[in-house]
Amino acid sequence: MSNSLFRKKSIEKIVKDAEAGLDDGHGHSGGLKKVLNVKDLTFMGIAAVVGAGIFSTIGKAAFDGGPGISLLFIITAVTCGFSALCYAEFASRVPIAGSAYTYAYVSFGEIIAWIIGWALILEYAIGNIVVAISWSGYFNNLLEGFGLHLPGWMITDPGSAKEAFTKAQETLNAGGALDKTMQFAYDTWNNAPVIAGKHIFLNIPAFIIVCLISALTYIGMKESKKMTNFLVIFKILVIIFVIIVGFFFVEPGNWNPFMPNDFGGVLKGVSAVFYAYIGFDAISTTAEECRNPQRDLPRGMIYSLVICTVLYILVAFVLTGMVNYSELNVSDPLAFVFERVGQNWIGYIVSVSAVVATTSVLLVFQLGQPRIWMSMSRDGLLPKAFGKVHPKYQTPWFSTIITGILVAVPSLFMRSSLMTDLTSIGTLFAFVLVSGGVLTLPRIANLTGNSTGKFKLPYINGKVIVPLLFVLFAFFSKDRIISSVQNLGSDNLQEILFVIFIVLAAVLSVLTFIRNYSLIPILGVLFCSYLLIEIPAVSWMYFLIWMAIGLSIYFLYGYRKSRLAKA
Questions:
Q1: Cβ–Cβ under 8 Å, residues 104 and 116
Q2: Can you state the angle between helices 110-121 and 417-437, rounded to 10 degrees?
Q3: Which of 12, 234, 2 is closest to 106 using CA atoms?
């Protein structure tokens, strides 16, 4: 059974399946329309990366880490850079839709490919629930700027509404006065419609925007591409404008202390900062719609990552320079800092840009998820319906509809906080396996029968560097290593994860010394693994439950229906 679990698909087989497609029920093949070039891919990467992170989660990260949060953006960018280079080599050799799922099928085998495909649902579909909720908040702020007010019960979820009302009620019971926020929460609860004794709260704007974006992705890639390019140009111009104007209000004294809560405070923002970067890999899901995927996919990934990193670092410096870091624990930090310096009109521009930015993220992620399901369907791991391509629009129409439902319905009532961490886990998990998978590539031929594609990862022998870095890390972390080992029996999942990371790092260091592994993929595995263990333990518990559900589906359906099983 172990052999069948790790059965692999050859690149030739993957390409043949992609070219043949699946019958759409009308006698048409499943080919996708090739309309994307390197500019489109770069814009798509920027669209996915510059979104909720730069307009919201950066605030909480700056509150925890101070001006030093700029270092975390650099660390995260380097980490993503290692993974991006690995994605680029895979994309060059395996220019097929499916992203990390397809790459894992080639390098590790079916069970790992399924795990990655299931984890990527967290990045694309579940991640888009968070983005939709953020979009709703920005949209509501924008409406209020024009004097329009939606009823409170139409713009929030039940959990948040009840929690806010409870706090307001406790304040009143204690004889205190309600501030503006508490009064809004109190009125929202009391004015909400009641059905069968339950107060009804639904995030209507989040639901509507997902439906509209899903309709656009259903119609076609060409239309989606034009919309993405327009949105990206607009938001980049606004962000550059904000950076330039913001520097005129910077007080250098706000940058001191640079790391007020030490490096540990900086690392507290790992999940929020990394969440800002996820999405550059969404480019790889569009491989079959690229005119020259082997050349353009690697370029699009790397260009977009570099541009976004520069923008994030500059925004971090402006934010922490305009006001003290301790004031930045707000949901709309960019608008907030300009209001603090008396430039409310810029706050309105930021609100418009935030709506545009999150719209572009929604668009790219809604494009990505259906194409992964389409690839899984071709392999027999999902029902054939998921692989059906529309005869007119040439899009995976059924998967697009299911993705729309999966995102739109939960966005009506779910809270976003837990989803952010789950999304980061799913993405980092994929990054680890893609980075590790590159190590198997010398044994894999590309479409032309050669061992290299048009992009080749630079080979740097890690024989000495990796063991040396591990020794240095172990030396500076010796106190935590000792503490983690001593507390292994205390059911502290965070400590268990740290010990697992140390063991993984030690094993990879030894293997790199013996086998002369390439430095970049090894660093990609180690950096992403470390970011994984910094995510709160409670999110890991939910992730393990998610994985258990996914494996159950695989063994009940995919394992038996797999095309490789039939072969």
A1: yes
A2: 150
A3: 12
Query: Using 50, 70 and 90 to split pLDDT, how confident is the model at 23?
Result: very low
Give the separation between CA 446 and CA 423, rounded to whole angstroms.
31
Return the pLDDT at 50: 81
pLDDT of residue 235: 86
pTM score, whole prediction: 0.81
Whole-angstrom Cα distance, residue 287 to residue 298?
Answer: 11
158, two tokens: 């039940």
> For residues 366 and 210, what is the distance between their CA atoms, to the nearest angstrom?
9
Burial of 228 from C-beta contacts in 10 A (0-12 / 13-18 / 19+): buried
Distance between CA 495 and CA 125 in Å, rounded?
Answer: 30
Spatial distance between the Cα atoms of 21 and 375, rounded to a whole number of angstroms: 9
Read off the DSSP letter of residue 458. Answer: P
Distance of CA 28 to the CA centre of its chain: 34
Burial class (CB in 10 A: 0-12, 13-18, 19+), 515: exposed
227-250 confidence digits (pLDDT tens): 888 888 988 898 898 899 999 999
Cβ atoms of 517 and 526 closer than 8 Å? no
- The Cα–Cα gap between 405 and 407 comes to 5
H/E segment holding residue 194: strand 194-195
pLDDT higher than 50, residue 452? no
Residue range 396-424, pLDDT digits in tens: 999 999 999 999 999 998 877 667 777 77
What does the alpha-carbon distance between residue 405 and residue 562 come to, in Å, rounded to a whole number?
26
Number of Cα atoms under 13 Å in the Cβ half of residue 549: 11
DSSP secondary structure string for all residues of 14-37: HHHHHHH----SSS---PPP--B-
pLDDT category of residue 442 using cuts at 50, 70 and 90 = low
C-beta separation of 321 from 207 below 8 A: no
Token reading at 542: 């939910």
Burial (0-12, 13-18, 19+ Cβ within 10 Å), 134:
buried
Fold category of 2-22+38-143+207-436+518-566 in CATH:
Amino acid/polyamine transporter I (1.20.1740)
Place of tokens 């668009």: 363
> What are the residue ranges of helices labelled H in 397-518?
397-411, 417-437, 465-476, 478-486, 493-515
Rounded Cα distance, 177 and 99, in Å: 53
Domain limits, the chain: 2-22+38-143+207-436+518-566
Q: What is the DSSP letter of 518?
A: B
Looking only at the bridges linking them, the beta strands covering 198-199 and 194-195 are: antiparallel
pLDDT in the model for residue 52: 64
What number of other Cβ atoms are within 10 A of residue 391's Cβ? 14
**Exposed/middle/buried for residue 253 (C-beta within 10 Å: 0-12, 13-18, 19+):** exposed
Residues 6+ apart with CB under 8 A from 76: 270, 273, 274, 276, 277, 531
Residues 6+ apart with CB under 8 A from 123: 278, 279, 281, 365, 423, 426, 427, 430
Higher pLDDT, 383 or 56: 383
